[in-house]
Structures
1.
Amino acid sequence: MQRILVTGGAGFIGSNFVHHMLARYSYDIVVYDALTYAGRLENLAAAEGNPKYAFLKGDICDIDAVRSAVKTHKIDTIINFAAETHVDRSIMQPDAVIKANINGTWALLEVARELGLPRFHQISTDEVYGQIPEPLRSSEGDPFEPRSPYSASKAGAEHIVYAYHTTYGMYTTISRGSNNIGPFHYPEKAVPLFTTNALDNIPIPIYGDGMQMRDYQYVTDHCEGIDVVLHKGVAGEAYNVGTSVETRNIDMAHKILDLLGKPHSLIEYVKDRAGHDRRYALNTDKLRALGWTSRHTFDQALEKTVQWYIDNPSWWRPIKNGEYRDYYYKQYAERQSK
Ligand code: NAD
Ligand code: TYD
């Protein structure tokens, strides 16, 4: 592993991962990203000028462009972060997630097979397991029961990755991360949406009863987990990455308001998400056995995240003034008439 193609590297987790890898190793990192609404070159500004880093604009569904990128840069490893990632958008427009997450993953795998790449890593999610009743936790061998277009597309992508391992003998690995929080998180997702709304004294929309639970992990902990899987993961295997501590959405919202010194009256209960998964929860023993550990508690992760949004309005304000406004109106106007 010397020259790595990081697809989706201009997004939230991908950009954090690029910074992590450039700081820790001397690999050549080539980011390949279509720069959709969620992909932002400013997330990679700190890497500009580093001779070990290059950026290519391209769609993972465009197999010719992927092949050309892999050949030109003599890539030996693909790490696939590229995806349409928002559950609510996947409910409004399922075609986009199916194309990017399933067709796109296939195109990457096909190029990797054709050119004999020694390594392929797929970034997946705890959402492939579906909702998990308390007190159960999902382990890697558990069946998939995805319930949203997003999670179904990620599960589909995983099946294709596994098929390329068993059928063609490719050295593939998969990591299934829980919800990430931290810098460069597009403010359509709950934590940055709640934080930036509260900073502007705009109501925080809580879906349904707000009792749904997520395992929120700090993004750099997830990046370290992916790093461990890349270096120690066994071919054909998948690894859960998360804190194994779950928090209710309503509790998370109260904590954000307290951190910002804002009134709890900003909380507004709105119509629930269709098919809303009640709880995700991971057993992470398999990754911990490889030496990984989660460094941040939920409170530490949330505090750092909220502080980043306080310190970086120049990053999120232009986003909230652009395409986002139309999306927000479509997504929330109808919900608020609950
Ligand atoms: P993001 O939405 O912030 O970024 C996605 C990136 O992919 C963007 O830069 C976008 O431009 C790019 N992209 C989208 N479609 C593309 C295409 N067809 N071709 C090339 N690039 C394309 O997403 P994120 O939160 O950073 O998630 C990254 C990966 O991690 C995804 O695979 C996601 O499913 C997975 N994941 C996310 C979370 C989370 O909490 N955010 C948790 C677990 C797993
Ligand atoms: P999100 O950040 O979209 O991640 P995911 O659905 O992939 O877990 O949402 C996290 C939780 O917050 C989820 O239970 C849905 C809920 N949520 C709200 O209550 N209000 C919102 O405006 C959003 C975006 C999410």
Note: The domain at 3-180+217-241 is CATH 3.40.50.720 (Rossmann fold).
2.
Amino acid sequence: MANYVKIFDTTLRDGEQSPGCSMNLTEKIEVAKQLELLKVDIIEAGFAVASPMDFESVRAISKAVQDVTVASLARATYHDIDVAYDAIKEAVSPRIHTFLATSPIHMQYKLKMNEEEVLERVREMVSYAKKYCSDVEFSAEDASRSDKAFLARVIETAISSGATTVNIPDTVGYSTPQEFASYITYLKEHVSNIDKAAISVHCHNDLGMAVANSLAAVKAGATQVECTVNGIGERAGNTSLEEVVMGIQTRKDYYDAVTNVNTRQIYRSSKLISTVTGVSIPPNKAITGANAFAHESGIHQHGMLQNRQTYEIMTPESIGKPAVSMVLGKHSGRHAFEERLQILGYQLTKEELDRAFDHFKLLADKKKTITDRDIEALLANKKVQIHETYTLERFVINSGNTITSTAMIKVKCGNEMIEKVATGDGPIDAAFKTINQITEQNFILNDYVIHAVTEGEDALGEAVVKLHLNGKKATGRAISTDIVEASIKAYLNGVNKLII
Ligand code: KIV
Ligand code: ZN
């Protein structure tokens, strides 16, 4: 029988803690709900003890999802484990994930503990976590640089103390596929109680081998893979969820393994993460990059026309990637729009549908044809709703290469209308400075990206800004057929998040 591999998603923990990927509470809940639709087995919702905000988001996610296990990370200390359990206790299926390093370098310099002390701490803390929760995961941090015989003793101790999953991380992305697989084989052969726990792997991508190492471990018998959507994570990132899942599915003949992931939700999950973090997907990224299914060469196109399998090892449909089709326009009614959303697999509440239809109509006034990708972009940008303190009423920009750029922006704030004018180094700078004047705050712009969502003259532009104010950060985004409008709205979106 095929090996069932659990997918443990740590986008909201290891992914979110990487630079430029922070999310606010509303965004985290939206992501967690999408991960539930994707049918991952476990969501690592955060590191509850890290801050009151982290605690709140782990707690809120625990309550927001039902059909998936929710884990919180905890160092191997009483306090961390207490706080982790407090945050996940309302989840339908809670998991405490505790960890301690096992490599000589980490034990000597970071922990200042010897092998016997590490073994004792593992015994004590896994047993302690087990009093709270039947589902306990233990991770041997930096396992891939640990002495194999010692690692086997640690894993045996964790299992005999109650761990139901033992995780073998390649914390610094140092291992190679054959070497990493040999760790799994070794543990299977030398840990007497290994059949009492799931064997998990957690790889980082410092040498670009996180997916290869994870898949090699699956081949050697690992039954859980820890990964993140789009591979976001510390430094060069974590194992990419979509690559591992599609690797297992596409090469079932080789891995003899299955996951429970609904692969048709992969594309949408990837887009959502890119949208909420503002980190774009490289065009040549495996599985979800814009070019992943594009065939440019004549020879390839000819082959594809004869038989798609000549150059296509998986289909765009299998990851839920919408075809570029001209589906709707300004005369399309609500019924057609609703039907299209159903075909694309969206399940919206009536309120969400009303809102989406209003935005669709506004877009249809500006754009001749609305493709499935436009609809995806529209929904990705409008789904994560936040309270809008400031909304754009109108703007006028005066710019050129021989004049100073000037922006006039009028916004609505409650019942009040505020209008200001400012100059800047180009139209966008002038617009952003005007918004700072309106809000009487000095928001700092860290990053600004604009890109086209679809092709063509009237393509939708998506603007993403990263702002900070007094140590708080937010990503703002918006779409429009006018890139200046998209930029202003994205800035206001970021501002509205920061001042909540
Ligand atoms: O990379 C790592 O070792 C981790 C552990 C805490 C699982 O993220
Ligand atoms: Zn990690």
Note: The chain has a mean pLDDT of 93.
3.
Amino acid sequence: MSRYENTFFQGEEAEERRPSGWAAMLRRVDTVVSTQEAAKELAEQGAPEGTAVMAEEQTGGRGRQGRRWHSPKGKGIWMSVVLRPSIPLQLTPQLTLLAGAAVCSAIRRETGVEAGIKWPNDLLVNGRKLCGILLESCAWPSGLQYTIAGIGISANLAEEDYPEELRKIGTSLLIESGRETEREELARAVLKELETLYGVYLEQGLDPIAALWSEQSVTLGRRVMLRTPEGPQEGTAVRLEEDGGLVVLRTDGETETLYAGEIALI
Ligand code: BTN
């Protein structure tokens, strides 16, 4: 038996509230170093696509670019999902856009908080970060084996739950809406949306996902700062390419298409 058992809605829970699909594949755990590792362990054991692990607390939650992810106990949705897409490894940045669009849709619908997507998949409210998403893939020489989509939504953190250095740059659903979020419910809604958009992506390709991403973006049309081999460059984020790259028109007149890395909104 796995350490990450599915304890979700067992027992007396009413039949009509019983989730289905990916929403039913959520496993709750108490404290882990990182749900990314827990989900990887499950993926290595053959867990099916859509299997998700949500922790009460992460002691070593991680973000992009080797940063730490603040994951206090009982305050957030710290969750990782196993994906097994049959796509070439170089298309995984498209899953990054997909995950951002799915989480943003679920948050807007379930909580009414109008989060917007900063490229590639940070969710911001009034310039402060509400949610971060980290995709990590495991590939064989023959192709992609699995991808773990790690989602960190700061749900019920109050200002004082943030360390001083994050207080101005981080926000939460509680801070933005004044209401506590039922975390399991939102986690299930996120998984449902992710499952739906993932199905759309596998059937129809990136176009409908890119359209949704663009609609929810707080990046397109904005002045941005990007890192280039020649140093920092300013420009304007113009649109997404058909393959998901972010087209930036630089102030030096060059056009650049980004597939990875980070930008700053200025
Ligand atoms: C980022 O914005 O840098 C990405 C943050 C991703 C955080 C989530 S929380 C659940 C999962 N487990 C982790 O250790 N990280 C991701």
Note: The chain has two domains: 14-216, 223-265.
